[in-house]
């Protein structure tokens, strides 16, 4: 497929994951809820007539049959509304949560806020269920053995299902937990993370008041145990033999009107025994939350909620992190837990995933003591997305083989031999390694310049030259090397129109910042702008001017002149 066709496809399909849409009114829910409310109102009028004694004895049997027919209509409407909330609302939210779990905290937080509207929808539906159950309780008590028991059982089962699946893992663990860090803390995971269990709605059934301060336990389990839980929700859970999770218990709290939550803050993975990297790199783990909640209608919510799978590494391992990135971005883990990664994805899907992953790596804290960064990430432009996906060679239909992300060589790295300082070999670098390395370099050495828009980023040499020729003044463009692994290129158009390219390794940037290099190196002294039209001196703080020796400002007195005469 041509690059222009890829661009057109991405324009249509790509919705930037950087900024999820603000919650809007769900028209489908409003329509379905109104139908449920109308059906309930018909049931309520019949129940009121029966319970108040307004229906004469000879007419009661026919009236009860009519009421039972209305109940069937109520159940149909309730099922339709429940299906919408579970499939079209909560499932869609959870699938997007999975994809955004590789993104920045800012992006995840925007998506998390959508739960406030979903919680309100669940509350509205929960109120109808509670009122219907309450009415049926009285009807089966005062009119036994005429059919209200069966209706009550159906509505109760529907309610039980709805309430149990209203309990969600609202904050997921990261896809990779790397166990490394300072020597004194080498047995713990490097970065903390937060997870959370949240109950949507449920106030009408007293879930918030009955379960505040109740305990919820968390276990670290293997994916094999998670598979067994799919078939047996009551399976006894035993902790992983290699690792344990801290903290492993917390309590449900209600701090506002947005439901009840159990927050596991500052979670870390602790190692029980000495392990080799390769021994755990291929394994997947999940967090399992043990749930036991009470309602005011006699329904007990007992079961286990399982997080998305993740890897625990005893030290960084880029290829494993790359596979987990693909798993979180493209596997259907919500509908089919622990399912495999697809073989192909669309260019638009890959472009959005790469954008989110780059943003997240750039925002990664560099030290254990650094707090989380919650800032609006810089977006990729369409040229950047198109450039990245074209490097992975999409097919004519606009789809990418995910094997190309892991295996396709796109750059080269020169590796010196230990025995000879000047001798070495060129090593081919796959796409994921090249991409992750540039994100890491941006995080460590180019953070401020990236966010200030001073770094163009992903761009070929040919594209850079074409871009610079369109600028009438002297200008430079900072880009990432397509061919040489881990290098930053400075493409410069001089005042005479000549275009040249300079390169820097990350070791150079560690010795002196790129900001200082652009200001002080004579190679860039005649450059006016940073692409597209940013004044270089204004953006970087001004060049260091050469020192000009000035005459001393003397104010001699009469004795000075007398001495001058004596000296001659």
Automatic annotation (TrEMBL):
It is found in: Cytoplasm; Nucleus. It comes from the Eukaryota. One of its GO terms (molecular function) is DNA-binding transcription factor activity. InterPro entries: p53-like_TF_DNA-bd_sf, SH2, SH2_dom_sf, STAT, STAT_TF_DNA-bd_N, STATB_N. It holds the Pfam family STATB_N. One of its GO terms (cellular component) is endocytic vesicle. Keywords: Activator, Cytoplasm, DNA-binding, Nucleus, Phosphoprotein, SH2 domain, Transcription, Transcription regulation. This is SH2 domain-containing protein. It comes from Caenorhabditis briggsae. The lineage of its organism: Eukaryota, Metazoa, Ecdysozoa, Nematoda, Chromadorea.
